Amino acid sequence: MSGFIRRLVLIGAMLIVPMNISFAEELQGKIAYKTLVAVIALDEGTVTSVHANVGDQVSSGDALIEFDTMIHKARVAARQSVVDRLKLETDNLADKFDRQKDMFERGSLSLLAYEETENALKSANARLNAAQAELSVAHHLLKRTKLVAPIDAIVLSRNIHPGMNVVPQLQTEPLMVLASDGSYVVKLSMDFDRWVGLKNAAISAEVDVNGNKFSPVLADSVFYPSTSGSATEFIAELNIRDDSEVVFPGMTATVKFK
Description:
Blueprint: E1 3-8, E2 26-33, E3 36-41, E4 45-50, E5 57-58, E6 63-67, H1 70-105, H2 111-143, E7 146-148, E8 153-158, E9 165-166, E10 176-180, E11 183-189, H3 192-201, E12 205-209, E13 212-214, E14 222-228, E15 231-241, E16 252-257
Antiparallel strand pairs: 1-3, 2-11, 2-16, 3-10, 4-6, 4-9, 5-8, 6-7, 8-10, 11-15, 12-13, 12-16, 14-15
């Protein structure tokens, strides 16, 4: 079974900021996870192990889901057998070619015999290269039967269990959804000119969430259009880090530009 990890960015709730607010005043926004990661399957297969539940914290590289490996291990063994056989054949032909090359240069072997061995060696090398490529693919597919966390995260949802047969074409939701652990954004809604004015006039910003202070780096902020129905507005995102678990998505944040 194989699968892959696809990364998504959470578009959280936002609070519209009146356009007549000056940069010196406090703005209100909403907290959202900085990143969401959707774990989905690429090919059909049977789940053998699930290593994380909702609410668990996982580190980058931790195993999340494992699929049955029997077919993939058999393919690796078969491809390895072919590679071993072709490598032996190629080595034997290489030794023969070296001997015949010496004989040809001394004039004791015909050009036809020499070229036949040379062409046979080239053909054997081509077959060996193709077999090694197939073995590499087989190893890659075997490795993908174990899905791991790409980042430090918390498990938000789990829609998978051992014994479940996964068919990607029939999937309507991810097997798991992970959220960046401790990494959040404050989302502010404003127009482009206001954002440029804030960034040009302010030296720093302070985020207040229920009395907890955070200092985002303005240079790391992003500004992008967000379309809802027929209306388009612009969203500013300020990155904050919270390892004390006092910040949660959906909370209101006060942002003061200084």
